[in-house]
């Protein structure tokens, strides 16, 4: 079992699910964010840290044996902000992990690394990346960096291309992209427990009817999503009109929007 699991971005939406849902996955959860976190409970440590600050990240990572790296700007933003949090922040984290001998990182990537593929195409881990936003490009950097650290140092990473992980799907796109918090947590547990993951790229999506992504190569994990967006379909389709032509791409609004700046 993992002794000390570091969770970055622990104050965010997924971080809160992870804090609650991963209790017992490790002797200690070290919870970190640049934002304020509520005080540590039993089996928890709180470390406030800006991922862009290299020495602070070195200290943050020391003593951990696995990392769930959620900390990032999680939406499209201007490049300078993404540069600090997502690019420099991820580099600092991998360097710190290398120095501290941390051998397993679960990196929260995004479906927006392939968001310029049209709806109707089924993608897998070998499909070319077609980022739909600067945010998507910043996550491509993290995926490539993790590959470099695997090839050079053997550090294992799972790049989780998360679809839309929220309590419920709330729009038509999410009927395809929804990842339930329960399925997310089950996936994280599998990735922590698997004896070997190597460098793995997979999509985080529940067992929805019209999924755009295939994870066949990751069957060995034994992760079988339990939830589906189907019970929400009727309400969503009643409320929301058919998507317009502007949303022909898997990335939805990200693909349709102008770049910032
Ligand atoms: P969120 O925006 O709710 O949480 C991200 C957290 O990272 C925030 O608490 C924020 O304070 C922290 N953070 C930002 N910059 C930081 C910095 N420089 N140093 C330290 N902490 C910093 O995002 P959410 O939804 O929890 O997503 C978590 C991760 O999963 C993100 O990396 C996001 O890109 C990724 N993701 C999430 C999806 C979702 O459906 N929720 C979909 C695809 C990817």
UniProtKB/TrEMBL annotation:
Q: Name one GO molecular function term.
A: oxidoreductase activity
Tell me which residues make up the NAD-dependent epimerase/dehydratase domain: 6-177
In this chain, composition skew of type Basic and acidic residues spans 230-241
Gene3D superfamilies, alphabetized:
NAD(P)-binding Rossmann-like Domain
Which InterPro entries does its entry note? Epimerase_deHydtase, NAD(P)-bd_dom_sf
Recorded source organism is: Rhizobium meliloti (Ensifer meliloti)
- Which terms are listed as keywords in the entry? NAD, Oxidoreductase
Q: What is this protein called?
A: NAD-dependent epimerase/dehydratase family protein
Please state which protein family the record places this protein in: Belongs to the NAD(P)-dependent epimerase/dehydratase family.
| Hydrolase is among the record's keywords | no
In terms of PANTHER family, this protein maps to: 4-EPIMERASE, PUTATIVE (AFU_ORTHOLOGUE AFUA_7G00360)-RELATED, NUCLEOSIDE-DIPHOSPHATE-SUGAR EPIMERASE
Is NAD one of the keywords?
yes
Q: Which residues form a coiled coil?
A: none
Task: Enumerate the residue ranges of region (Disordered).
Answer: 226-261
